Each structure stands twice: as structure tokens, then as C-alpha cells.
């Protein structure tokens, strides 16, 4: 995914980043600079049935700690996100008063800067959709 940012979006990116002393723990799968804005992408390669709510909660904690301009929870699957992954996000975000909104097909947005997407029809297109939305949200509404 870090290479995708470089090749497809002309944006430098690092992968497997660990921040010393970070309260959220874990690693940041991909961190990129898109038009001078920090973007964090969490990549899941297992099918949705193997993703648990604790992983979603950890992702949200890392987003809150890093405070990127945009963050993407990318599930490398053609399966629907609405069935299992979106309900996990809704559960984790309920106390924060944030809602998950469908942006397009199986791509969702939270608070205008956190995205949930899969690889259908393709990863680059969906990632591009997320980037276009956070850079120019007024064109989507």
C-alpha cells in the first residue's frame, strides 16, 4: 500500500511505522503525505469474519492519538463491509456520538475524515475516492 501511494497518488509513504511511547500502541500500517496532509491507512488482509471489534477499537485509538487529516480502514476483500465491519465501527463510535455514513457502495465515512472501504471494485479506486472526498468534501454533498 505504501508503494500505491507513491505510484498512483505521487505521495510519499512509509509502512509498519511504530511510534515510541505512543499511547495507542501497535503499528501504523501505512502513513502517507497527500498534498502535505497526513493520511493513515490500516490494512486488513483477512476476510471480515476474521476481524474483531477490538481491532476496530485499536484503529480508532491510533487515529485519535495520531490525529491525521484522514484515516482509512481498508479491508482487502470484495465482501460487503456493512454486514460486520460497519457495525463494529458503529458500536465503538456510539459513545462519541459519531455516525457511519455510506459514501458510495461499500465505502463509508465518519466525521468527514475517517473512512471504511474494501477492494471492490478495486483498491486504488476506493482509496482514490477516500482521498478525493477528504480533499474536496463539498463536491460530494
Q: What is this structure, in a nutshell?
A:
The chain has 141 residues and is an alpha/beta fold. 31% of the residues lie in helices and 28% in strands. The chain has a single domain (2-139), classed as Trna Endonuclease, Chain: A, domain 1 (3-Layer(aba) Sandwich).
Write the H/E string, N to C.
HEEEHEHEEEH
> What is the number of helices?
4
Secondary structure class reads alpha/beta
In which range does the helix fraction lie?
Answer: 25-40%
CATH class: Alpha Beta
Q: Under the CATH scheme, which architecture would be assigned?
A: 3-Layer(aba) Sandwich
How many separate domains make up the residues?
A: 1
Radius of gyration: 14 Å
Distance between the termini: 28 Å
**Strand portion:** 25-35%
Do you know the CATH topology? Answer: Trna Endonuclease, Chain: A, domain 1
In words, what does this structure look like?
By secondary structure, the protein is an alpha/beta fold. The protein has one domain (2-139): Trna Endonuclease, Chain: A, domain 1 (3-Layer(aba) Sandwich), CATH 3.40.1350. Helix content is 31%, strand content 28%. It has helices at 2-9, 53-66, 85-93, 123-135; strands at 13-17, 28-34, 37-44, 70-75, 100-104, 107-110, 114-117. The chain has a seven-stranded mixed sheet with strand order 1-2-3-4-7-6-5, sandwiched between helices. Helix 2 packs across helix 3. The N and C termini lie far apart (28 Å). The mean pLDDT is 88.
